[in-house]
Amino acid sequence: KNQVEQSPQSLIILEGKNCTLQCNYTVSPFSNLRWYKQDTGRGPVSLTIMTFSENTKSNGRYTATLDADTKQSSLHITASQLSDSASYICVVSLSSNDYKLSFGAGTTVTVRA
Amino acid sequence: GAVVSQHPSRVICKSGTSVKIECRSLDFQATTMFWYRQFPKKSLMLMATSNEGSKATYEQGVEKDKFLINHASLTLSTLTVTSAHPEDSSFYICSASRQGPTGELFFGEGSRLTVL
Question: Which of A18, A19, A39, B87 has most Cβ atoms within 10 angstroms of its Cβ?
């Protein structure tokens, strides 16, 4: 069973609207949580990275939140643009001492005009 | 910012041939690089950790004789798919971190392999 679960699997939103993606994890111990954006046929690009002590981090119109107690994270996209159409991947790092990462399956976002 | 480059971005080969994919860190040195495989609509699967100057560490279930990894320099790792078969067709991605395990992980653009 994947240790990082993302929801929804996919969603469609109208340009200009907001949306929120969810990431629940069971990974333990936990070092940091990352959100990546992956365009179709391209490599992932980092959006945010948060340690367990951080609650929120923003990158332009992208805002990530983290609740380490409930092991939940969200990625909020504000005023969506057509270029936001992509897969958004939640990645959890197990330890600060090695590169063990757990990847979520991603949420595919489609922004329509 | 840091950039990781992969080449080729797309490759088509005949069954039985070998294909080499390169992963370069363009503006930083990476003692450790990672190779992933991604199936459509699925998450990235770590295949192996490439260590400069030493043997790669393969994940369980990944055939090391099938997927040869060489990390000959601090800026280059290569993945060679040997005796490729149609089931090896996939999207292969590499990544590297400039600042160790807690640093930002930069991904290559990916390489789409199609084996006929």
Answer: A19
The residue assigned the tokens 């365009």 is: A39
* Contact with chain B for residue A44, Cβ under 8 A: yes
The beta strand positions in A1-113, using DSSP E, are 4-7, 10-14, 19-25, 32-38, 45-51, 56-59, 62-67, 72-77, 86-93, 101-103, 107-112
Query: Per this entry, what is the length of chain A?
Result: 113
Whether B68 and chain A come into contact, CB under 8 Å, resolves to no
pLDDT of residue A53: 87
pLDDT of B40 strictly over 90: no
The per-residue pLDDT for A97 is 63
Task: Tell me the C-alpha distance between B66 and A46, whole Å.
Answer: 30
- Which residues on neighbouring strands pair with residue A24, listed in sequence order? A5, A72
Identify whether the C-beta of residue B70 lies closer than 8 Å to the C-beta of residue B77.
yes
The residue count of chain B comes to 116
Which of the residues in chain A have pLDDT under 70?
1-2, 96-99
Contact A44 B93 (CB under 8 A): yes
